[in-house]
Amino acid sequence: MDDSSTAQRIAKSAAAATPPAMARQIRGLSDRAIAWLFVTPTIILLLAINIFPLIWTVYLSFTNYRANRLNREVEWIGLRNYERVLTDTDIWHTLQVTAHFVGWTMFFQVIIGFGLAWLINKQFRGHSFWTTLILLPMMLSPAVVGNFWTFLYQPQIGLFNYIVAFFAGIEPSSFQMIGDVNLAPWAIVIVDTWMWTPYVMLICLAGLRSIPDYIYEAAEVDRASKWRQFWSITVPMVLPFLMLAVLFRVIENFKMFDLVVELTSGGPGSVTELASINLKREAFEKWRTGYSSAFAIILFVTVFGVANIYVKALNKVKQR
Amino acid sequence: MSRQDIDHRKDSESQSLLTRFLQLRRGPWENLATVIIAVGTFMLMQPFYLELFTYSFVTILTGTVMFIIVSHFKE
Amino acid sequence: MSAASAHSVVESKPWTRHLAGGVVILYALITILPLVWILMTSFKTPPDSISYPPKVIFEPSLEGYVNLFTTRTRQTPEYMASLPPPENWVERLVRDRNMVIAGPSKFGERFLNSVIIGFGSTFLSVFLGTLAAYAFSRFKVPLKDDLMFFILSTRMMPPIAVAIPIFLMYRTLGLSDTHLGMILLYTAVNVSLAVWLLKGFIDEIPREYEEAALIDGYTRLQAFVKVVLPQAATGIAATAIFCLIFAWNEYAFALLLTSGTAQTAPPFIPTIIGEGGLDWPAVAAGATLFLIPIVVFTIVLRKHLLRGITFGAVRK
Question: Is there a single domain that holds both residue A29 and residue A103?
Answer without folding.
Answer: no
